[in-house]
Amino acid sequence: MDLLQMKFKFVKTKNIKELPKKPGVYCFKNNKIFYIGKATNIRGRVKNHFQQPSFKESIFLDKTKKIGFIYTGSEIEALILETKLIKRHQPKYNVAWKDDKNYFYAGITKEDFPQVFITHQRKQREISNKRKTEYVGPFVDGKSLKRTLKVLRKVFPYRSCKNLPQKPCLWYYIERCPAPCLIKTNLDSTMLSAVMKSECKKNARNVFKFFEKGKTKVLNDLKKEMKKTSRDQEFKRAAKIRDQIFDLEKVISNARIFGAQEKEPEYAEVEKKLKKILKTKRAIKRTEAFDISNIQGREATGSMVTFIKGKPEKTLYRKFKIRFSQKPNDIAMLKEVLYRRLQHPEWGWPDLILIDGGKAQLNAALEVLKSKKTLTAAVAKRKNELFLKERKPLLLKNLPREIFNLILQLRDEAHRFAVSYHRKIRKQKILTLK
Q1: Which fold is adopted by the domain 3-94?
Q2: Are 188 and 182 in contact, with CB atoms under 8 Å apart?
């Protein structure tokens, strides 16, 4: 079946458990589809959106009424379908976060021995090499596109070098390229050239067709070609096509192209790495993050968000309307929020507190929380540095990926919650002035 003939099936957001644990494409919808994604495990990926939303994701998750899904059967088909559906629906939050330079395309040159390559600058490439090229895309995920081409290359060996070298490279010896460069060194180059030209064009065309029409179309065309070559008694060629059919079905079904981002790390491993960074043996199950939002001190608000074992627990979120009324002072506002937090032991107490800010904010928090002796850190936006007591700041990019993601999720969620409350108060004030 043509991938584009497949339609989304929808469930309500409260029924995420009805989503399949299979590869495919999903979408978030209100009146319109406003975000489309792909996943190895649709249910797991959608749950992850809600449990650990980034600041950007939180913008549209609150608007979501329905979740759509299409089961594709393989990761590669999910990648291709995602591309086609984004192109068709133009979902707001896919398009808004990507420009032409960030999308990826697979290109195939129109020449005797086509080159297959990846690019995100189509026009510049055509001008620089002056070769006519066909493109398929755009693709959101460049890494998955690269892995897909690598998988297809096992079935349809193709040339990837920009200029033909003097002798075959490693791709030829591992049977991933027909090596048209052999023509330069072969005495019987006329016959070889004709065979090589036919093979290179067919393989490149099948790669392109796979992206354009899908697996079913390529398989059907190969089966037709195999029957024809058998009737013409080209048994060697027919056997080769038979092997391509078998290999294509096998590698597409088993290929893993989305990478580790689909896997949620066990919190025990995350906690182990976090404890090592913070140089503590104490358990870190509950983390609270704080942020302040204001415009020159007016309608200032504070937020407290809580993560349990790396996941947001929204029943424990708290918001504060700042009472501090003197000149704008973020440090004084932060202290006020933390002092007010101390007055509520019934809320429970965190193992780690994360403050939005740098050294000054960290010192202010340590001063307020000195009676609690709680692990406390601050994260500064400008350089994405993590500040810890009596230590040099750590660059987040140098920390393990799980810790990098967790800290940014905490900071972004605290910021989102503070800003949303600040906007609500400003709106209420404007309405009372009318």
Answers
A1: GIY-YIG endonuclease (3.40.1440)
A2: no
DSSP classification of residue 322:
-
165 backbone dihedrals φ, ψ, rounded to 5°: -75, 175
Burial 216-250 (b: 16+ CB within 10 A, else e): eebbeebeebbeebeeeeeeeebeebeebbeebee
Helix (H, G, I), strand (E, B) or coil at 34: strand
Give the residue extent of every domain in the chain: 3-94, 101-254, 267-433
d(CA 82, CA 98): 15
Q: Residue 66 pLDDT more than 80?
A: yes
Beta strands 352-356 and 286-295, pairing class: parallel
Tell me the C-alpha distance between 176 and 172, whole Å: 6
Instruction: Convert the pLDDT of each residue in 403-419 to its tens digit.
Output: 988 998 898 888 888 88
Fold entry, domain 267-433 = Nucleotidyltransferase; domain 5 (3.30.420)
Identify residue 271 by its one-letter amino acid code: E
Strands 66-71 and 24-29: antiparallel
Residue 372 confidence class, pLDDT cut points 50, 70, 90: confident
Alpha carbons 91 and 233: distance in angstroms, whole number: 51
Q: Which residues pair with 306 in a beta bridge?
A: 288
CB atoms within 10 A of CB 314: 10
Q: Which two tokens stand for residue 214?
A: 């899908």
Tokens in use for 427?
């709106």
What per-residue confidence (pLDDT) applies to 353? Answer: 97
Higher pLDDT: 431 or 33? It is 33
Report residue 432's pLDDT band, with 50, 70 and 90 as the boundaries: low
